[in-house]
């Protein structure tokens, strides 16, 4: 017989997520058929909040069990409370559980996508960057056939969008990068032809100023801030087709320098920085074929190497590094517009699928919010620009 001596139900808002916390002063036997995602002993000084944080930041986690006495934090991928976890005795343990909304009556649910506020302007081939104040800056893009110089800010706490200063140059198929000083670097893109120009956004004033031009005019390229503070720009489309060239921006001088070429010219790829500071450039389009290949740039060696390929070919997807180090790939285009989502596990080198988005999108954006959720906004579905946004 399993006796729960007392249960206190605490409703608390942690990082904006609603958590139900069921505290049981009991011996807690994890007699669970649920899949264990993680079993960690937390450092001295940790609390249940640390276990909740781990659950929030582990994309598979729905239930966390915390043993106070030995600081063991177990994370499960399902709702393990309803009959799947048994308890008896006198050891204090807490069960924590994600809830999707107030009406869900303490039932855990898998992380899923929900709609949030619409942008003021429909746009695709725009960019999104998270500012140090937690807001998301969306810049430029196309509204059907109109080049946009407008920019808007998403407030995650209010779930709505406001306009900010306009860029000097209307552009789409450009990139934006948040620099260590908090300013946002915009590079290249398309306006009549591929652009060399770059500009800086100051979040404090909401205004834009121009900085040094790139050596190569390019659109649909990638940018990454390296650990040395310089910005790597790779690939894109320019004179002669898909570019294999790459260059570095020095924020202290506002100037650009060419570096080693990639092995393949690619546009519409993504570039992400792995935990070991290596840059991974994924997928894209050569002008003739969709790519699933990936290559790595090691800033210390200053060269490119090919690595394992994705399962699916795709361009115009997004790639986000989750707090557990995995890379989340959403949507994009191959032979169809995609709502599929894949996760890349760096430690195994394997790709797995996870919940689909509600809507097919390519040329959209994905941003990791402070609460660990991923905001996906806008995009294009083959017939229309999209103003909807969803959260994972
Ligand atoms: C664990 O669950 C199984 C099947 O539900 C049950 O037979 C067994 O007695 C349980 N063990 C404990 C220690 O509760
Ligand atoms: C978690 O790991 C600890 C230490 O390795 C082990 O004693 C315990 O049985 C594990 N718990 C589960 C549920 O796997
Ligand atoms: C922590 O305590 C629980 C309950 O006594 C036990 O099931 C678990 O195996 C312990 N974990 C470790 C790492 O000792
Ligand atoms: C996710 O959301 C979609 C649409 O809102 C719904 O149809 C689906 O059942 C949800 N999946 C889960 C696992 O909650
Ligand atoms: C956004 O939401 C907040 C809080 O509800 C409100 O104060 C603000 O006026 C809204 N802004 C816009 C642009 O709707
Ligand atoms: C920002 O731009 C506006 C419009 O050009 C200008 O009036 C304002 O002075 C600028 N603010 C700063 C801090 O540069
Ligand atoms: C890089 O590639 C371009 C064109 O693809 C070529 O002209 C150039 O010589 C290459 N640079 C190096 C250093 O190999
Ligand atoms: C960079 O990689 C290319 C191709 O693998 C190789 O030929 C070249 O020697 C490498 N350069 C350096 C500096 O490692
Ligand atoms: C960084 O991680 C990637 C992916 O696991 C690996 O291929 C690469 O060799 C690593 N680079 C370094 C310098 O450790
Ligand atoms: C990785 O994928 C291969 C082939 O599908 C499979 O054999 C292997 O077990 C997977 N590894 C992990 C850790 O999932
Ligand atoms: C594309 O989006 C528009 C606007 O939301 C919608 O009306 C249309 O059905 C969508 N087309 C496809 C193919 O999903």
Summarize the SSE layout with pairings.
Elements: E1 7-14, E2 17-25, E3 28-29, E4 36-41, H1 48-56, E5 63-67, E6 72-76, E7 86-87, E8 92-98, E9 114-115, E10 127-130, E11 136-139, E12 142-143, E13 146-147, E14 151-155, E15 160-164, E16 175-178, E17 184-187, E18 190-191, E19 193-194, E20 198-202, E21 207-211, E22 222-225, E23 231-234, E24 237-238, E25 241-242, E26 246-250, E27 255-259, E28 270-273, E29 279-285, E30 290-298, E31 303-307, E32 318-321, E33 327-333, E34 337-345, E35 350-354, E36 365-368, E37 374-377, E38 389-391
Antiparallel strand pairs: 1-2, 2-8, 3-7, 4-6, 5-6, 5-8, 9-38, 10-11, 11-14, 12-13, 14-15, 16-17, 17-20, 18-19, 20-21, 22-23, 23-26, 24-25, 26-27, 28-29, 29-30, 30-31, 32-33, 33-34, 34-35, 36-37, 37-38
The protein binds 2-acetamido-2-deoxy-beta-D-glucopyranose (11 copies).
Report on the architecture of this protein.
Pfam families: Kelch_1. Keywords: Kelch repeat, Repeat, Signal. Residues 1-16 form the signal peptide. The protein has 392 residues and is mainly β. The protein has two domains: 4-98, Hepatocyte Growth Factor (3-Layer(bba) Sandwich); 114-391, Kelch-type beta propeller (Neuraminidase), CATH 2.120.10.80. Helices cover 2% and strands 44% of the residues. The chain is built from one helix and 38 strands. The strands form eleven sheets. It has a six-stranded antiparallel β-sheet with strand order 1-2-8-5-6-4, with helices on one face. The chain has a four-stranded antiparallel β-sheet with strand order 9-38-37-36, with no helix packed on it. The chain is globular. It starts with 6 loop residues before the first strand and ends with a strand. Residues 1-27 and 99-109 have low confidence and may be disordered. One 2-acetamido-2-deoxy-beta-D-glucopyranose (NAG) binds at residues 29, 31, 86.
């Amino acid at each position: 017989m399993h006796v729960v001596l007392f249960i206190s139900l605490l409703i608390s808002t942690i990082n904006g997520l609603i958590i139900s916390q069921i505290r049981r002063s009991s011996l807690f036997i994890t007699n669970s058929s649920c899949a264990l995602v993680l079993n960690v002993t937390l450092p001295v000084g940790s609390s249940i909040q640390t276990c909740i944080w781990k659950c929030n930041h582990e994309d598979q986690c729905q239930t966390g069990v915390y043993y106070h006495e030995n600081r063991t934090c177990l994370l499960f991928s399902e709702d393990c409370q309803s009959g799947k976890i048994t308890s008896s005795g006198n050891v204090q343990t807490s069960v924590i559980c994600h809830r999707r909304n107030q009406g869900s009556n303490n039932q855990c649910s898998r992380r899923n996508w929900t709609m949030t506020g619409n942008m003021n302007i429909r746009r695709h081939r725009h960019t999104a960057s998270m500012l140090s104040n937690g807001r998301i800056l969306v810049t430029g893009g196309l509204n059907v056939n109109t080049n946009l110089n407008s920019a808007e800010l998403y407030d995650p706490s209010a779930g709505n969008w406001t306009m900010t200063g306009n860029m000097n140059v209307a552009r789409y198929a450009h990139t934006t990068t948040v620099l260590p000083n908090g300013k946002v670097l915009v590079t290249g893109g398309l306006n009549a032809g591929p652009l060399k120009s770059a500009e800086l956004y100051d979040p404090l004033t909401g205004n834009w100023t121009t900085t040094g031009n790139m050596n190569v005019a390019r659109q649909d390229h990638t940018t990454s801030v390296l650990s040395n503070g310089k910005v790597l720009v790779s690939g894109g489309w320019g004179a002669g087709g898909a570019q294999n060239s790459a260059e570095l921006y020095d924020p202290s001088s506002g100037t650009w320098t060419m570096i080693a070429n990639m092995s393949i010219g690619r546009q519409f790829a993504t570039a992400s920085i792995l935990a070991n500071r290596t840059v991974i450039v994924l997928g894209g389009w050569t002008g003739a074929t969709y790519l699933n290949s990936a290559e790595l740039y090691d800033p210390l060696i200053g060269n490119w190497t090919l690595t394992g390929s994705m399962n699916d070919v795709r361009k115009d997807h997004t790639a986000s590094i989750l707090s557990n180090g995995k890379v989340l790939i959403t949507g994009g285009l191959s032979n169809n517009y995609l709502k599929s989502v894949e996760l890349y596990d760096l430690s195994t080198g394997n790709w797995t699928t996870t919940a689909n988005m509600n809507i097919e999108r390519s040329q959209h954006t994905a941003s990791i919010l402070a609460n660990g959720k991923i905001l996906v906004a806008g995009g294009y579905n083959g017939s229309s620009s999209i103003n909807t946004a969803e959260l994972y």
